[in-house]
Amino acid sequence: MYKDKVYDFLLKIPKGKVVTYQDIAIYLGNKKLSRVVGNILLNNPNPDKFPCFRVVNSKGELALNFGYKGIEEQKRRLINDGIEVNNYKVDLDKYRWKF
Asked: What CA–CA distances, in Å, run from 58 to 4, 68, 89?
């Protein structure tokens, strides 16, 4: 049920913006679903289509276990997306998408 909604939401995140796991959980209607969102993203069937690299934690930190290629891959994708990453962290005040 949530899986399709999460992947649809990922398609809406503009280039150069990020959201948090909790942002997506709130979109789903329950801010306590952050871990569910994380598990769904961990099993992303097509990271090139569904840009889960644009999702960070509530502190703006990148995912240690991002996909199959790890945190360096998430960092690379964010930088290519025009997002500045410092010490594996994104400035949420600057880059967070307010949907």
From this structure: 22, 22, 10
Q: Where are the domains of the chain?
A: 2-95
CATH, domain range 2-95: 1.10.10.10
Return the HEC string of 67-99. Answer: CCCCHHHHHHHHHHCCCCCECCECCHHHHECCC
- Residues with active-site annotation: 52
Q: Say if CB 17 and CB 54 are below 8 A apart.
A: yes
Note the pTM of the prediction, 2 decimals: 0.94
Q: What is the pLDDT along the chain (99 residues), one digit of tens a residue?
A: 899 999 999 999 999 999 999 999 999 999 999 999 999 999 999 989 999 999 999 999 999 877 767 899 999 999 999 999 999 999 999 999 999
How are the residues of the chain apportioned to helix, strand and coil, as percentages rounded to the nearest 5? 45, 10, 45
